[in-house]
Predict the 3D structure of the following.
Amino acid sequence: MAAVQKSGLRDDRVVAQEARVADPVSLHRKNLAEQVFEILEQRIVSGTLAPGSRLSEEAIAEEFSTSRSPVRDVLNKLERLGFAERVGARDRRVQVPTAKLVSDTYETWIILEVGRTYTSSQGASAADREEIRRHIGNMSAAWNEGRMEEYARLSEAFPEMLHRRCDNTQLLSVLSDFEKYRTWLVAVYLRNEPPNPDSLVEHQMIAEHYVNSDLIGLTRSIQVHVRQQRDRVLAQVPAV
């Protein structure tokens, strides 16, 4: 058998053997913490856990049949992400959105949304543009005929059509992490709100500028659309 070469580095076989022994415990804890985090984050983002709801280490540990240590890691992460705030030495509560948090979220959303939509418009084919025109036509017909459920369904499908040709992976990665904040605010404050009376005109303007790959027009129309949603949320945010 060949001798193990001596150097400043440890033998790879020894390191690998130790890793096989140590990994199961640390991996189990990591996986458990990740699962608990994903569940709690989803409850918060969906509005199931309302702003101000208590996040007790003890209660969460009991629910998931685990110790407090991984739960503490989860709550620390939720706090860092802005979904939880500290209300004592150990416990947290679901973050209560402030007017500044809402405003910052929507202003950031404008920047990201303009970048994604304009990038997508540059890669759109003639068929994509025609599909956008047809879709807006269907939305207009549903609105004018009072078919609000159909209008809401078509409105929900519209953003995906605007975004589908964006292939900037860095931008999409940032958006993937950020979108949950706006989703959270909508779930908490606008879940049962009827469609905004100006939404059809806003969608029509966005579609027109998308079809023409007009960056200035897209920026202005997206600003109008996003800020009206921001203002509807702000109208419901309790004054501090």
Notes: The chain has two domains: 26-94, 99-234.
